[in-house]
Write a structure and sequence with these properties.
rod-shaped
């Protein structure tokens, strides 16, 4: 019982760490729902799960590349004094004149530079269903990531409720011991004002064996 009380109290202390009242040194009273929401908001495991959802959504957005058109611009340059290349470059650049038919000019041409600019527009028409399958896979990834987040949130709520009720039961047992033996003090100090305490609930609201756990 002592070990369970200490573990639950330490857990709720961490939950209340970000509370403004706790920073001001005031007593903090938490309901079970408040403790669970605070634990969910500051849990590193859940933050990693949320990042996983964002990554899955980005991958789903990326699959649209298989359906949408793409534009590509490229620039190339080639410089040569090879006879064949020089002759072809002049023809491509529409710079060929009568003087270029001179035998000496054809056999020993001057260095010439040719620039090529390409503008390509591509529109996928059919790729054998690859884009559709990739998008379906990405959708499944988003759903799986969301399911992992919900499962992790349920786990945090369960662990928080377990610690919460453990502290309440331990504190009630401690008060019962003190009432029966006023001179008997436990071997550990009672909680101070800097540690948050759960809301007092009547015994009628406590979960009984066989009843559903409060979320």
């Amino acid at each position: 019982m002592v070990k369970r009380w200490i573990i639950g109290l330490a857990f709720l202390t961490l939950v209340c760490h970000n509370s403004p009242d706790a920073d001001a040194g005031k007593p903090v009273t938490l309901s079970l729902a408040q403790a669970q929401e605070t634990a969910i908001a500051g849990n590193a495991m859940l933050q990693a799960a949320r990042t996983g959802i964002e990554r899955a959504e980005a991958q789903r957005l990326q699959t649209w590349a298989g359906h949408l058109p793409s534009l590509r611009i490229s620039e190339g340059a080639m410089r040569s004094n090879d006879a064949v290349n020089a002759f072809g470059f002049r023809l491509k650049q529409e710079r060929f004149t009568q003087a270029d038919f001179d035998v000496n000019a054809l056999n020993d041409p001057e260095v010439i530079t040719n620039f090529q600019t390409k503008l390509e527009l591509r529109q996928p028409i059919f790729n054998g269903g690859k884009s559709i399958n990739q998008r379906a896979q990405a959708e499944s990834g988003v759903r799986a990531s969301a399911s992992d987040l919900r499962r992790a949130e349920d786990e945090v709520r369960y662990r928080t409720a377990e610690a919460y009720w453990g502290v309440i039961l331990a504190m009630e047992a401690l008060e019962a011991v003190r009432a029966k033996a006023p001179g008997c003090e436990p071997p550990f100090p009672p909680p101070t004002k800097s540690i948050c305490s759960p809301k007092r609930l009547s015994s009628a609201s406590w979960p009984t064996r066989g009843s559903s756990r409060q979320n």
